[in-house]
Amino acid sequence: MGQLLFKNIKKVYDGDVQAVADFNLEVDDKEFIVFVGPSGCGKSTTLRMVAGLEEITEGDLYIDGKRVNDVAPKDRNIAMVFQSYALYPHMSVYDNMAFGLKLRKMPKEKIKERVQHAAKILGLEELLNRKPKALSGGQRQRVALGRAIVRNAEVFLMDEPLSNLDAKLRVQMRAEIIKLHAKIETTTVYVTHDQIEAMTMADRIVIMDDGYIMQVGTPSEVYDHPDNMFVAGFIGTPAMNFIHGKIDGKNFVTETMKVEIPKAKLDILKKQGFEKKPLVLGIRPEDIHDDNAVREAYPNAQVDFKVDVAELLGSETNISAQIGKYDVIARVDARTDINIGDTINLVLDMNKAHFFDKETKKVIRED
Amino acid sequence: MENYLLLVQVSRVNQTIKAHLDGFFDHGKKEVLEAKSFLYQTSLYADHLPHEDIVGLLYSDFNIKVKIAAIGEKILSFVSIDTLNQTLKKMPEEIYAVEDLLKHLIITNPKAQKELRQSFAKVLSHSDILTLNTYAANNLNTIKASKSLFLHRNTLTYRLEAIKEKTGIDVKTFKGILIFNLLFSL
Ligand SMILES: Nc1ncnc2c1ncn2[C@@H]1O[C@H](COP(=O)(O)OP(=O)(O)OP(=O)(O)O)[C@@H](O)[C@H]1O
Ligand SMILES: [Mg+2]
Fold first, then answer.
1. Which of B26, B43, B46, B160 could be a cystine partner for B22, CB 3.0 to 4.6 Å?
2. Residue-range domains of chain A with CATH
3. Domain B4-109 has CATH 3.30.70.270
4. pTM for this one?
5. Among all residues of chain A, which has the CA nearest to that of B23?
6. Relative to the CA of A54, which ligand 1 atom is closest?
7. How large is the ipTM?
């Protein structure tokens, strides 16, 4: 079993830096959970508290129902994979992998069995006698994973394990880690600041900002139903567009734009008391269209865009444009006939529109 | 590239732990300062070594606390390695740059502060000190500082580089300039 429970976890470093504030989370057995967020938001600190490398200032941390705040790292049933792989340079691949087991006084034969099994899973069988220096980055990373696998730990902790690899290898190792997890099913907490990594690998994502959890959810939950403007803007590239305005009758209006709000959404906005309050409309670039089917569905959600840049990317064109004082990006089917300075008519898929309270930055939804 | 020394302290020591420390850090030259303090020479830029991970690994595997301070050779003309070693012992975190040690020393030890001021004063001219104070007062903004000193920007940059050469402290960083700010503008 590999359950984790964070209860009101807080970390304040020397000198009053609050790195993590009131962190609450339950991680299920076998789950692959990813912490993501901008630099300095507290991802590594949280992970290191689980590993026991960092003291917990306040709150309780449970592994499999046992409170581990005061348990030494070596006595927690976890295995950490470090960003720089942290292999012992003077020991062979075999010894690096066997090491944690030797320290735990496991019989030699059994160690050999485990190491060979892990080496097979990771494709390291031919490399067991090499020193880390004689390995490529990807191979070193595999050895680091091997160290974790042989331990049969309940929880794997990985802090940006792929960030030292080049882009191509990163994609490949990403897939390998997912496959590995499918095979051995060890609960994994994975830290990254790369949202694509988070979206492609996670069962659930924890999005953090400035020491706070902003949202926890599956990749599609956080993408389709962001709780707040931070998550909405952080997940997705190009980022979600934000346009500030207010309700006027059935419409969302700004100084230069007017679009009709679908009835269901309008009812919620009114019910929550936003008829007179400042609002932010969020719309993803791919939810802005230039085809007639969408235009017919939302005849009153057409907007004129003054084109700043049009970037043809394979089957799509990214159009950067201005609506009043807001920069907006639309991703439409490939078009070569758009020139800078043109004004083009596009339509917003209003069912995909998100509305946020300008003041609290939270999404407005039914209670 | 200046040679870097790594000052490494451990909470507990035995043959195995020594062997692992050597495995990570020993690239030819090592000095035993005390039973639990070692000085390693490394030609890599200290920043490029994954110190934090090494500290984490040794703690998870052996339950030993390791502290590491990266020290440029030059600075040892101004402060002894023994003083730095004693200073590191008193500090709470695991990984430091030499500027962190110097700052701690200056703030906590008036005698050491005076000695440090005197030894830096031997190599820094009045105009060096004026340059440093003005640069600090202008928040490390070379354009503003050079205007206020009536110097060309390149001249200022050149002077700051020369001070770095002489002292081993990179005064273009906040950590670095802070040392001279504490010593010479109090
Ligand atoms: N040892 C420390 N002492 C004081 N403050 C620290 C220490 N370690 C981290 N911090 C601070 O705590 C906050 C969270 O840091 P943390 O390393 O957890 O961020 P992160 O999300 O992992 O960022 P990154 O993506 O850059 O790795 C930051 O403001 C950081 O400066
Ligand atoms: Mg980090």
1. B26
2. 4-233 (3.40.50.300), 241-357 (2.40.50.140)
3. yes
4. 0.87
5. A90
6. 1
7. 0.75
